[in-house]
Amino acid sequence: MIITEIHLENYTTYYGEKSFKIGPRLNIIIGENNHGKTQLYKALHWLVIGSERDLIQRVSEKKLKEASEHVNFNVGVKIVGEQYGEKKSLSRSFSVESREDGTIRLGKPKLEATVKKTNGERIQAPAEATLEQMFDRKMTKYLFFEGETSIHETFSNDEALSNLTRHFSGAHQYDDFSKRAKDLLGQFDSVIEKETKKNQTRRREYQLLEIEVNQFKQKIELTEGKINDKEKELKKVSKNITDVENQIENAEELETSDKIISKLKNDISTLRASVQEDYTSKLFDDRWILHAFEPILNEYSHKITEADKKRRKEDHADIRRKAKEKGIEEGKQQGINAMLGDILPLNVNVPDKETMEELIHDQICKVCNREAKEGTEAYAFMKRRLEALIKQQTPKKQNTLSLEEEEVPLFQNNFLHSLIRIRDEYNDKTSLLREIDLKIIQDFDLNKSKEASLKTLREDLEKAETNREGIVGTSATSSKRLIDNLVNYRAWRKDETALKEFIFTLKNEVDLTQTQLDLKTDQKQKIEAETAISSMVKNQQFAQDIATILYDTRQKKFEQFAEKLEEKANDYYKKINEGGFTANITFEVSKSFSGEMEIDLKLKQRDGKEIIISTQGKATETSVYLSCMFALSEMSSIAQNESFPLILDAPISSFGRTKSSQFLEVVSTLDFQILLTSKDFTEEDKDKELVFVVPEFPALIERMRSSKATATWVNLERPFDDEQRDTLNTLTIEL
Amino acid sequence: MGIQKNALFQDFLNHPMLKEKYGLTKSDIPDRLDEGLASKHAVIRGLATICDELVDNQNVSTKKLHEIMAKRLSRG
User: Fold this and answer.
1) Are B50 and A186 a contacting pair at CB < 8 A?
2) Is the predicted pLDDT of residue A8 greater than 50, yes or no?
3) pLDDT exceeds cutoff 70 at A639
């Protein structure tokens, strides 16, 4: 079937009546986005599929706005085509009634067909049947493609290719034959069984065998069904694995890299938290402020010691003076002092009372580490010191004034005493002061070493991040996809192993049951051969062989078709991809466990190594699938002596202008009809005021002229506001 | 649109089983379907019957097909 004309009436942006003249081969519809290309595609798809949903969206809003008063108009699409020497027209349309109250009533869409016979007679034809003739329903989903993605989705699914191959190879007709042959064989079996049962002698034995055979058959059928389902599942899982397998190494590297980065970040964070640089609190809370206090304390000690010495010296001089004046007892004391020479005695409270008592008790002077046995001068000295101390500590009686008490001491208040106590107290803490200094040094050193470690960690992190970027690039999406793929890959691997094991078990089960079935069938057939009419048994064997021949022929047809299809697809692929990426399309034929023929599309290097199609970029992927599509179209027209137009909306949007031109030149030589839309050959000026056809396009059209290619430009009438749909009117311009 | 009876029949006759199991030679293989229906070899008659009956009338019942087939196979 060849489309010769397309007419649109008030269909979305196609306001009024618009027409396209269509050639028998390549027809290119060019135009900017949202200027009507996809609407044309949708109109044709609607014509073939038919849908009553969202009709209002198919109505030209410009027409609706215009019909503000009560008015009726039609919305529809019509194609005129040629098939089997007859001119056929097919239209789908509905009426729109715009009422005075502002409401709109949409009529039910009607499909209509007329046929102009070879003798010139024009008749109304049954619309659905004509549609079925013009577009094979089974083929529709392989004739209409909206965008590259729909092509990818359809052809990356092996089932689609298997279905198409089955359809065009005629294998589907052999499917029917195989099925009928199987039914026929069942009928032969049934007749023989009936005949055998007439014989009473081995009836019971036969009946039991029959039950067992049926049970085994049912079991095999059930298990085969399970195997089939699981094999389909396995195939999907294996395909998923193959699709991502080449990314797994990267994904694993990425995972390792992420772990390293995460650990480094964690280490940096922990280390940074442990660097204590809050020196203000250390200054006060940890008393760092006292780190320079020791010289001050030393100076203080020195001064206090000197002052004390001075006091004692003067006190001593005073006592001597008084001793001279007062008599023997004091003179005696002074004599003792004289024995000591000019040495200043220690304060009477040094050592303290308890220490002195201990020294006396132990009979050892622990100040000079010498024995001071009772009776010795040293012992007597310690006793006197203790007595003097006790005497000093004994409270003086207020009212009994002795000669001594009447005397006023040189230093009435010993202020130095408390200063000495402070000195002694602080001297005891000198080691603590020195510890502060040590702590400061330690803390500074520790912080310094931590800063150095931080620097190293930061450098390592930078390196790890650079390495990570090398693995995934800077895109967050791609890294997420890689990690997702890795997670999925591991799950799929597990599933794959589990499925394989399960299928293996099921197959073993089938084999075992089949052996049992064969045994029982043999026994059953033996009885049949003995009891049934021999000609019936012979016919049954013929029927069995005929069923095998039909089944094998179906398989052979499928394989032959796939082989030719592969050859054609590669021819197209080479042409489309001339000078570009080289690889071979291969169709691997296999048979599912249930006996269904299947085809796997693969792309292989010359050395036979498989290349994952989806990883080769959108343009390569599209080229592969379009090559298969063209091969199928060509093969179908040979096999069925009939071809159908391919209607492709923006199928090559990833190609770019140069590759698109090259592609169109190749496609224009194909001997079947293609309607293709593209945005590659028009451009808007800077102000977006004007759209023009790029200068390369007329030359391209000229080169394709000999192959009967047509080109139409769809362009919105100006002025328009793309936010206001009621201003849109697509003009069609033949180029 | 439908597959041609003769072409289909010829496809079936290419099966190696005819030579290997039934020992048929080139001269035993008919060129046309009607020759096949009249063949002296039951398996050929059976294949021809399948093509003859099913291409024109796919709705023929299995029982009816069995009757025709049994008759044709037994004829030799």
Assistant:
1) no
2) yes
3) no
pLDDT per residue over A149-200, tens digit each?
888 888 877 677 787 777 776 666 777 788 888 888 888 888 888 877 777 7
**Domain co-membership, A404 together with A326:** yes
pTM for this one? 0.61
pLDDT at A68: 65
Report d(CA A595, CA A312) in Å as an integer: 124
Beta A584-591 vs A370-371: how paired, if at all? unpaired
Q: Which of B43, B62, B63 sits opposite A546 (nearest CB)?
A: B43
A481 and A360 inside one domain = no
Q: What CATH code is carried by the domain that includes residue A189?
A: 1.10.287
Taking an 8 Å cut-off on Cβ atoms, the answer to whether A173 and B3 are in contact is: yes
Q: Do B66 and A181 touch (CB under 8 A)?
A: no
| A544–B contact, CB cutoff 8 A | no
Please indicate, yes or no, whether residues A274 and A305 belong to a single structural domain of this protein: no
Considering the domain architecture, whether residues A320 and A419 belong to the same structural domain is answered as: yes
Tell me: ipTM over 0.90.
yes
Closest in A170, A542, A552 to B43, CB measured? A542
> Does A490 share its domain with A456?
no
Q: In this complex, which of A176, A183, A186 lies closest to B58 when CB atoms are compared?
A: A176
DSSP character string of B7-49: HHHHHHHT-THHHHTT---GGGS-SSHHHHHT-SSHHHHHHHH
- Are A211 and A99 part of one and the same domain? no
Structural domain includes residue A487: yes
Nearest residue on chain B to A551, alpha-carbon basis? B12
**A640: closest chain B residue by CA:** B1
Query: pLDDT tens digits for A25-42?
Result: 999 999 988 899 999 999
| A727 part of a folded domain | yes
| Residue A149 maps to a domain | no
Residues A35 and A113 in one domain: yes
Number of domains in chain B: 1
Q: Supply the pLDDT for residue A110.
A: 93
Closest residue on chain B to A171 (Cα): B3
Mean pLDDT, residues A363-378 taken together: 87
Distance CA A266, CA A262 (A): 6
Using an 8 Å Cβ cutoff, are A356 and A386 in contact?
A: yes
Beta-carbon separation of A187 and B17 below 8 A: no
Does residue B55 register a pLDDT over 90? no
For residue A537, the chain B residues in CB contact (below 8 A) are none
Token pair for A697: 């396009």
Q: Is the pLDDT of residue A397 over 60?
A: no
Q: Do B17 and A543 touch (CB under 8 A)?
A: no
pLDDT for res A532: 66
Domains held by chain A: number: 4
Q: Which residues of B touch A170 (CB under 8 A)?
A: 3
**Domain of B17?**
5-75
β-strands A104-106, A144-146: how paired? unpaired
Find the CATH number of the domain harbouring A117: 3.40.50.300
Size of interface A-B (CB pairs under 8 A): 73
Mutate to test the interface with B, among A539, A552, A641 (most CBs of B within 10 A): A539
Residues A671, A673: Cα–Cα separation, whole Å: 7
Q: Please, is B52 exposed, middle or buried when counting C-beta atoms within 10 Å of its C-beta (0-12, 13-18, 19+)?
A: buried
The domain in which residue A99 lies consists of 2-135+644-734
Q: What is the DSSP string of A161-176?
A: HHHHHHHHTSHHHHHH
Average pLDDT over residues A643-655: 86
Q: Is the peptide bond before A719 cis (omega within 30 degrees of 0)?
A: yes
B74 min Cα distance to partner chain A (Å): 7
A86 burial class (0-12, 13-18, 19+ CB within 10 angstroms)? middle
Please give the pLDDT value at position A5: 95
Q: Are A301 and A414 in a shared domain?
A: yes
Domain closes at, from A398, A416, A431: A431
Check residue A669 and give its pLDDT: 86
- Per the domain annotation, does A144 fall within a domain? no
For chain B, the residues whose C-beta falls within 8 A of a C-beta of chain A are 1-3, 8, 11-12, 14-15, 17-18, 21, 42-43, 46-47, 50, 54, 58, 62-63, 65-66, 69-70, 73-74
Output helix, strand, coil percentages for chain A, rounded to the nearest 5: 60, 15, 20
* 149-208 in chain A: CB under 8 A from chain B: 170, 173, 176-177, 180-181, 183-184, 186-188, 191
